[in-house]
Fold each of these.
Amino acid sequence: MSAASSISGQRVVVSAGPTYEDIDPVRFIGNRSSGKMGFAIAAAAALRGADVVLVAGPVSLATPAGVQRIDVRSAAQMHAAVLAALPAQVYVGAAAVADYTPASVAAGKIKKHAGPFTLELVATADILADVAAHALRPRLVVGFAAETDHVEAYARGKLDKKRLDMIAANRVGLAGSGFESDDNALTVYWPGGERALGPAPKTALAEQLLDLMSERLR
Ligand code: CTP
């Protein structure tokens, strides 16, 4: 089987976009993830004949052709939707999941008072680590990491700690790359290897990432 076709017919679950963690009915904690990288991976995998489930945080992007999309808002909702989409052969965690969420959501709008205001946050569940440790673990579990320095050490640390097969580190801070851009630069690490991809449009990076993933599915 060629590397390019080894993903055909496989079930691929992709998470994409930010999560919004509600504080009260009018406020939330979010982040600047556009979802473009995850949507590009989902689109490219579907074109290669994969059966793709895209779990999307709040983004304004069109659903790629042939992709089953599940819209979620919070990290907890994304966690539930991703685990419910298993079993799958591949999981790609491209979402920028909030690491912390408010301990409680206020029922009414929080009013302004004199003096400082403290918001209690609690850790969210790590979706990627939970997928990698799951009884229905996909053959290939791929994470993303946003690193500004010590890129290899931090990315490889996450590869080991979360028991991943592959991690794609965003080379943050390069001109014309990153969260809201159409372009990006990645270094992909796996046990015993690495590959620098880009800078290139996210659509081209998605194809190159799928080539690397397909090689490992053969
Ligand atoms: N991730 C997840 N669930 C979370 C947090 C992160 O699935 N609650 C996933 C993301 O989808 C991504 C990877 O984990 O694939 C990012 O790992 P993380 O440890 O959060 O890295 P950073 O966001 O780079 O965090 P930091 O460097 O601050 O540890």
Amino acid sequence: MPQGEPRALVLSGVEGMKIVTIVGARPQFIKAAAVTRAVQRYNQKHPYQQRLQEILVHTGQHYDYLMDKVFFEELNLPRPDYHLGVGSGSHGRQTGMMLERIEAVLQKEKPKVVMVYGDTNSTLAGALAAVKLNIPVAHVEAGLRSYNQAMPEEINRLLTDHLSTFLFCPTHQATRNLLREGIKDGKGKIVKKVGDVMYDSILYYSKIAERKSTILKDLGFDTRHETRVTSYYLTTLHRAENTDDPWRLKSILKALNEIGRNTPVVLPLHPRTKKMIETHHLFSEFKNIKFIKPVSYLNMLKLEKNAKAILTDSGGVQKEAYWLKVPCFTLRDETEWVETVKSRWNVLVGTGVERIIKEVSHTERRRRYLKGKGIFGDGKASDRITQELLKHFYKLCQKTPGF
Ligand code: UD1
Ligand code: UDP
């Protein structure tokens, strides 16, 4: 047996290991891109019979060019093998349509494992379709909890974790959360702290963003003399609990508008938020906010890195602020990414106008804090996920899915 080769692979003979990867929403394209690159790296070094075959399924949850295709182009993701065209809808309808269409793909492709990412409706639909066909599920970003079940994401991640065979956790906290629910390594579950695949992504792409992105110039910021342009705040806002409650939405926008009196506030608008602002006719009320279209990943990294601080309710953006050493104010009452708060780099500021303005006025003080090296791994989470799947390859091949 070649040195360092997973034993299972050599035993398995010529049958390739087929993985079906389910994506559908913006952050999943970024996460899947990291793992797909790791799979490609592995495949390049191995003969045909030992390769992993990844089939990419796009549910169609996100579909606007700036929420979807731009990421495939920029991150060099392969074209989806299946596009299910589900689109927007209520939770039940959207998840139900995905479930039906993913099932049909799985029945045809008969993969050894189904890989899902994060906590969206696409994640849950993928996991549910797979387990109902006795196909093991691998959940990337397992174990996160906000302990707020009013969030649709909390339901999605909770159920997905309990359905999964492989639980790839980004942090120790995530493995501890699972343990509390009785999910641990052994007895048919593979629970591993592998690190955060978004960290892999940011390490890889931030240098490219530095070189390629022209967003600062495009927005009219002067980039001639400084290495870090700190003359604006960057905001993202899309959580249903913030956007769909007009009181909370107005309150956040009021705070941003107030901050925008002295320093520009840039807000790349998620389509959900745009829709709600239009519904309540709020655009004209908040003239100090620089509303722009959603930006590509490279442009986002550039905007984040050069911001004075970031105000966000996004999961991924909280972490990116931490990794890029930009102070972060989270427009929520709780977070799954508790490590960023413990390190005091991220502050939960809620959605009240005064609190947001007060905390943001202390931005410079926050720049002094940065602790907790290596919380999110070492940038090799995707390689670890690939290796872990390979290690269990033989067992997975022995198992006959219940078609
Ligand atoms: C979804 C995820 C959320 C994740 C976010 C990432 C769920 C329950 N939520 O939220 O966890 O943080 O993606 O961005 O899965 N729309 C468009 N164009 C698009 C996509 C959406 O106009 O390309 C509009 C539609 O009006 C749609 C609304 O945005 O109804 C919400 O989209 P949806 O995919 O349901 O949820 P997100 O808010 O994007
Ligand atoms: N992002 C982006 N363009 C934007 C807003 C966000 O590329 O206009 C990226 C961001 O850098 C991060 C990811 O999208 O990598 C986060 O996705 P989002 O906030 O939509 O979802 P969440 O992480 O909250 O699930």
